[in-house]
């Protein structure tokens, strides 16, 4: 039996990197996808690639920081499918600059997308999942930098630390309503979020000597999204090639 057979799965940031690889893996496990991202043209391309492989997917253009867009995503998903089984709350942006050079506007933008957007989508999902007999599952994408510090990315690290504790709190708050909430904490993964010139030093800094692949994150996300993690909530799964074990 496929691990997400007929499950309705909303994936934010679902048309690039970790989100796109997860869309492909989840669809191959029987999921019906609602992909959410900023770029409508690219969104439609990804959906038609999935449809060509016989998968069920729609794209809903949204900015994860917009309350109106968040409501629209969930109403479109429920209108089409009647329910939402899984939210993969994965959209995010990187931010790398010495703290003394970061403007307050830049700080707020990072925290707005990487933490506020995660809260907003989780809250909308929970409102729907509470009314469903089978509850639901939320997987938030945090980062290993939700657990450790590093120079030059204080806003990002603060936001991701926030996602880790948001995940704990939501996990505890909704455990009795059959809504599980966990976080995926990737190490350095080879996606467009990492500038090309950074890839060689980050490979070297990782004990396994390479960047992780989006497909490897997708497998971890599938574990968290499916019944394979049925007794797990409020937790964060670090998948980082050994980085945080150093
Ligand atoms: N790649 C890594 O090394 C790494 C490490 C740790 C955590 N992460 C996290 O993984 C997640 C996915 O990142 P990725 O590496 O696949 O990068 P990516 O850039 O390939 O994908 C991120 C997606 O999020 C979308 N997005 C950004 N802002 C948005 C907004 N306001 N509204 C809607 N969509 C928006 C982007 O358009 C993009 O499609 C992010 O949360 C990121 O912080 C990545």
Automatic annotation (TrEMBL):
InterPro entries assigned: NAD(P)-bd_dom_sf, Sc_DH/Rdtase_CS, SDR_fam
GO molecular function, one term: oxidoreductase activity
A Gene Ontology biological process term: bile acid metabolic process
PROSITE patterns: ADH_SHORT (PS00061)
Pfam families given in the database record: adh_short_C2 (PF13561)
Keywords recorded for this protein, A-Z: Oxidoreductase
CDD domains hit by this protein: SDR_c
Keyword flag Oxidoreductase: yes
The keyword Transcription regulation is annotated on this UniProt entry: no
Family: Belongs to the short-chain dehydrogenases/reductases (SDR) family.
Stated name of the protein: NAD(P)-dependent dehydrogenase, short-chain alcohol dehydrogenase family
Organism field: Lacicoccus qingdaonensis
């Amino acid at each position: 039996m496929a691990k997400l057979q007929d499950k309705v799965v909303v994936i934010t940031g679902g048309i690039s990197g970790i989100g796109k690889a997860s869309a492909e893996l989840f669809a191959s496990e029987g999921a019906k996808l609602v992909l959410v991202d900023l770029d409508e043209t690219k969104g439609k391309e990804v959906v038609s690639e999935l449809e060509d492989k016989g998968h069920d997917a729609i794209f809903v253009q949204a900015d994860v920081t917009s309350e109106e867009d968040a409501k629209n995503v969930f109403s479109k998903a429920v209108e089409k499918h009647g329910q939402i089984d899984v939210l993969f709350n994965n959209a995010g942006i990187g931010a790398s600059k010495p703290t003394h050079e970061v403007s307050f506007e830049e700080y707020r933008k990072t925290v707005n997308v990487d933490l506020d957007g995660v809260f907003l989508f989780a809250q909308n999902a929970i409102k729907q999942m509470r009314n469903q007999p089978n509850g639901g599952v939320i997987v938030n994408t945090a980062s290993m930098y939700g657990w450790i510090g590093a120079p030059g990315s204080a806003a990002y690290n603060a936001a991701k630390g926030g996602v880790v504790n948001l995940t704990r709190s939501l996990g505890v708050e909704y455990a009795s309503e059959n809504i599980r909430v966990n976080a995926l904490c990737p190490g350095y993964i080879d996606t467009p979020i990492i500038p090309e010139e950074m890839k060689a030093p980050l490979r070297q800094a990782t004990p396994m000597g390479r960047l992780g692949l989006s497909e490897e994150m997708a497998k971890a996300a599938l574990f968290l999204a499916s019944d394979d993690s049925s007794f797990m909530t409020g937790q964060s799964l670090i998948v980082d090639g050994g980085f945080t074990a150093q």
